[in-house]
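Name: Methionine aminopeptidase, type I, methionyl aminopeptidase
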Amino acid sequence: MIISNSKDIKIYKEACEISVSMLKKIGEEIRDGVTPLDLDRMAGHLCDEHGVSAAFKRVNGYNFNTCISINDVAVHGIPKDTPLKKGDLVSIDFGIIHKGLNTDHCWTWSVGEPTKADRKLLKAGREAVENCIELAIEGNHTGDLGFEMERVAKHNGYNVLKMFVGHGIGKTLHDMVIVGKNKPTILTDTLKWSTTA
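Structure predicted for Methionine aminopeptidase, type I, methionyl aminopeptidase:
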């Protein structure tokens, strides 16, 4: 979505600040014995407290506030009632709708201290996202971001699942702009997008 006025940019920043603060609170509850369904319910309560809607519940047929992927589930896992255990990697994908604008964030945590292999994976994911943030400047292309994410993944010995790409976001959760290795959309100062490593 192209946000074309300063009012919407301000609202979008507010929405992101609210969403990130909520995701941090949810992450603080990740520990041995807690279930993904518990975390999802917490997300719903936080939405109520902040007067926002859970963006994912607006996806036709989806009845959860979050997507929670455990260990080798790549993305968009459905929250279940199976307790987390020490050593699990937990990725929570979460977004809100605030004053008509959507957010979409995903963070990954370790239940307890991560293994050496898990630390490497977490570090590579963070590096890929941070590198993309540096490249997200007016005049670059969405393909530059996708290429960098794939470069970081392969450099660290990981593969990329080609069917998953970043996307535009704003008044809709999944907008037409696609962030992938071979995507030519030019970035502007008003283009908003979401990408996950």
